[in-house]
Amino acid sequence: MVKKFVKVFVALCIALSAFAVTGSASAAPAQAPVQAADGCYTWAGPLSEGATGDPVRQLQIRVSGYPGSGEVLGLDGTYGPATKAAVTRFQQAYGISADGVAGDATFAKIYELQDDDCTPANFDYAELNGCNSDWSGGPLSAADAKANALVSMWKLQAMRHALGDVALSVSSGFRSYSCNDAVGGAADSRHLYGDGVDLIGAPSFCTLALQARDHGFSQILGPGYPGHDDHTHVAASPSRLWSAPTCGLG
Q1: Which residues pair with 36 in a beta bridge?
Q2: In sequence order, what DSSP letters do the residues of 183-201 get, joined into one string?
Q3: What pTM value is reported for the model?
Q4: Distance, CA of 49 to CA of 208 (rounded, Å)
């Protein structure tokens, strides 16, 4: 489901000066509090190679769809060469000066792309969970399964943009054990972990499978792989499995 872009709100803070009744010099302006850039997450300043911590990890989630062909970006909170390269590709994709440093222009684009619940503009949690409302019932905690789905959504957002901002249709996302059993899913399905996503509709399944190689998906299954002639499956498995023989992948 396509959602409208989040607008970036910039708060204007007024500094108040106190004047002495004797006519002496005014006191220094009060320090304005940091204002949130949007309802999800606000970066306090630029990030570049060598930075560490949660601000870096939050950035890595948003650029996880730009790791380079066949690569997967680690979400380790360390701004190393791979993160710099992913930021550079993100900048190139959106016409931002591509220096690999996450600054105002990069964050402004992220704020534009994300909604207040941190999902990207063109995907939401409901699309990635047709099983239950609380993400429970799988091998991971509900919070971890939901977090995995968020990363997959940002990868799909990058894939969508690379395909010309075409709409991508999700037929299945997170499944609990019971939901997975009900549809005959594999016992080790990545849907159980929250990061598995099945795509249907246009573009073609082969187009989707081949494009997914550039956006951080270690598991890509499509036409020609058993049970996948009617959709393309993408996920974040621990080891790579790409197989869509009809599309020349595998």
Answers
A1: none
A2: TT--TT-GGGGT--EEEES
A3: 0.87
A4: 32
